[in-house]
Sequence to fold (453 residues):
Amino acid sequence: MEPYRIKVVEPIPITTRDYRERRYAEAGYNQFNLTAEDVTIDLLSDSGTGALSAEQQAAGMRGDETYAGARSWFRFREVAEELTGYEHIFPVHQGRAAERILFGALLKPGQLSVGNTHFDTTRANVELAGGVVRDLPCAAAADLDSDADFKGDIDLVALEAVLDGPEDVGLVLMTITNNGGGGQPVSMANLEAVKKLCRKRGVPFFLDAARFAENAWLVTQREEKYRGHSPREVAKLAFGMADGCVVSLKKDGIVHIGGMLALRDTELAKRCELLLIATEGFRTYGGLSGRDLDMCAQGLIEVTDPLYLRERAESTAYLAECARQAGVDSVRPAGVHAVYLNAGRLLPHIPSSRFTGHALASELYLAGGIRCAELGSLYLGEIDESGELLTPAPFELVRLAIPRRVYTRSHLEYVAETLAGIAKNPERVPGYRLTEAPAMLRPFRCRLEQVQP
Ligand SMILES: *Cc1c(COP(=O)(O)O)cnc(C)c1O
Fold:
């Protein structure tokens, strides 16, 4: 059960199917055009959508808004240093600002950033800095049904080949957990091996640690050597292997806004500090207010609580299991922050060119007011200006992201029941065609219409 009780409540909109059909049509069948009023259960993102604790609210009240050298900064730095072990801590307004600053200071034009799977803003920031992204997920990641423990690992043989090849590698970046790869964890053994490969060649090794605590939890559950360890001990050991990290605190910081860049190298830190002050704010607040810094510090303490992590992991696995029993498969094994539904398998009558993943995501909204994100050909496929699909995504997935401490198990049961209703008559679900397909940031801006596949 949840190791907390509810002190503040917020009503959620309960709507009718008629209402949702009208609103979704007005929204051009794009869930990003829906508003909070339209959505009953919002599983679009686990980023910045968590619930604050009473202690975080109290910490926010203690927030000190002094411009330079605020007390809040020293409290934040103490927690961040204790957790990561890095000497240079820079607060930023969210994860992508840390990416922009790090890559801007570190990457030379044409250099590679090599990783297990870069997150989409991470990729964009590597490219904006003139770098090139190379994703090397392990082979098990491609098998959605495999129960391998660490499908977030990087392919070490491929990594070594790139490091010893002719290309110039600017850094290796390991994303924990691997959000782009089904939210799968990375093993400590894999991180250790990456560290050794990088150190031997003098290549910087960084973590994209948005879900460092969830990764640490899964390590304590799945990696023999770490069974007796606490999640916080494992997280510290993981940070200890790398030269620094970029972190979106909107995930495992359990705050609504916040991020962090942390480093060992003093020379690199000096270059980053310059970019930080020019674009985010003075080094003792980054892009954050004092109250944000204090709430982040408290969130970074709470998030490694084993009781919290166990319940979160178990409730996500429970949703995946309820869905499976209703006939809807998802990427195995279940991760912690999201369930990735296999829409391609549920809706074989809808070809990728009619956006199978989007079709399932849309039906979840129409049937139950549940909003979620498509991770299929609409997002990841190659599409021409007229909206025709040229190259499909490898899988048609739908991500149900679970906000932290927000929904109870009965909310998740409602999601599973809605899925079960869809799975009874999957052939009734229509496909979609793009009517507006902007070349840039397409998923956020496109419009669609329903078509019978
Ligand atoms: C969310 C996220 C980011 C970007 O962080 P923002 O706070 O949204 O800017 C980077 N990497 C990963 C793995 C993420 O999940």
Notes: The domain at 54-302 is CATH 3.40.640.10 (Aspartate Aminotransferase; domain 2). Residues 375 and 397 are 5 Å apart (CA to CA).
